[in-house]
Specification:
This protein is of the alpha/beta class and about 350 residues long. It is about 40% helix and about 20% strand. It contains eleven helices and twelve strands. A ten-stranded mixed β-sheet has the order 2-1-3-12-11-4-5-10-8-9, with helices on both faces. Strands 6-7 form a two-stranded antiparallel ribbon. Helix 6 links the parallel strand 8 and strand 9. It is globular.
């Protein structure tokens, strides 16, 4: 039997509602495919911050280091500034564990109504590869003359050759397993130092992949193409900020942010990777039991895949597709009346009956 120990951080808001559904479905998949998942819960997040002044303990990364993977809900809640919650937990884990790839699949599933008309399921199927360690999300900068008329803020963007090359290379290698097409998100007309550098690195890495077709768009028109031509894309690679924005847009194009999964990967496997939905803690619907758990559950399938449990991962994806294909069990974001738990239950039940494809 394959045994894995997983660190679980439910975090805040709907994270506390959707993670238990993820665990239930993953357990059903593990049972069926003869794997053993042992969960270790860490009660870190905004509640911990309000009690202790820290989102996670000072040795938080050391506590997580030996796990096979980290399964995260979301962090952030009113009462704690968003930059405090993200920089106190999520970003230190992504950086400390060199999870430099943020992989975010965008796929239109059967039974889901896209706000963009005219694209049948299967026609929208691409991956966003977001740089996850540097770029625009840097703490280099500061303020001068606070609370005066001369007040100013400076925030530096950091692009390194190592950082650009490794994320772009990952995108090309991923494309080689798919439709062999990589699109680069840039803005080298307006941002005149970092973005031309990004373009240069993209062109340089691309030379090593002559079998992969390339495209490059400025981020402004690229957002329009996401809406008008979502069938154009296979792998889209972008900096930290561009990838972040594109992934919420991609999620909306394929039906709901409540469906969008993501993986924070350390491809070298020197550290644990972390799996979490694209969405945040959704305080506007937290506590009502109506959050869509599918993004969390699908992120769990990505975790199984990363752990080498591809049959179990595929079974979870097929169970999600089977449940979505029926209109009865849907949360309100997809126009239904079902609750978080109903959807988790239905997917866990489906695992037992879906055909084993491998
Ligand atoms: P959000 O993703 O939490 O919510 C945006 C909108 O989508 C809300 O209307 C929400 O109700 C809806 N939504 C999100 N997930 C849903 C789901 N599973 N089912 C149904 N509807 C869903 O983004 P927002 O409002 O910008 O941020 C809220 C908090 O989450 C903030 O504190 C923010 O910093 C944090 N956040 C945390 C992230 C993380 O932990 N990775 C990522 C994004 C935001
Ligand atoms: Mg985001």
């Amino acid at each position: 039997m394959n045994r894995f120990t997983i660190a679980v951080i439910e975090g805040d808001g709907i994270g506390r509602e959707v993670v238990p559904e993820g665990l239930r479905v993953l357990e059903a998949a593990a049972r069926r495919f003869d794997a053993s998942l042992s969960w270790h819960h860490f009660d870190w997040g905004c509640q911990t911050y309000l009690k202790t002044g820290r989102m996670m303990p000072e040795d938080g990364l050391d506590q997580l280091r030996e796990f096979d993977a980290i399964y995260l809900g979301a962090v952030g809640y009113p009462g704690v500034p968003d930059h405090v919650s993200l920089w106190g937990l999520l970003i230190p884990i992504r950086r400390g564990f060199q999870q430099y790839v943020n992989l975010r699949p965008v796929r239109l599933l059967h039974g889901v109504d896209s706000p963009v008309k005219g694209f049948p399921p299967g026609n929208i199927d691409f991956c966003i590869v977001r740089e996850n360690n540097e770029g625009e999300y840097s703490e280099v900068g500061g303020r001068l003359y606070s609370h005066t008329d001369a007040e100013m803020a400076v925030q530096e963007t950091v692009f390194t050759r190592r950082g650009c090359d490794r994320i772009i290379r990952y995108a090309f290698e991923l494309a080689q397993t798919r439709k062999r097409h990589v699109t680069s998100a840039t803005k080298s007309n307006g941002i005149i130092h970092t973005m031309p550098f990004w373009d240069e690195r993209f062109a340089s890495v691309a030379q090593n992949f002559p079998d992969v077709r390339t495209d490059q768009y400025h981020i402004d028109i690229l957002t329009a193409h996401f809406v008008r031509h979502p069938d154009w894309f296979d792998v889209v690679v972008g900096s930290n900020l561009f990838g972040d924005i594109l992934s919420d847009l991609g999620a909306a194009v394929v039906g709901s942010i409540g469906l969008a999964p993501s993986a924070n990967l350390n491809p070298e496997r020197e550290f644990p990777s972390m799996f979490e939905p694209v969405h945040g803690s959704a305080p506007d619907i937290a506590g009502q039991g109506i959050a869509n758990p599918i993004a969390q559950i699908w992120s769990g399938a990505m975790m199984l895949q990363h752990l080498g449990q591809s049959r179990a991962a595929r079974a979870v994806e097929k169970a999600i597709e089977a449940v979505l294909a029926r209109p009865e069990v849907r949360t309100p974001d997809l126009g239904g009346k079902a609750g978080t738990r109903d959807v988790g239950d239905a997917i866990a039940h489906e695992i037992a009956v879906v055909a084993d494809t491998q």
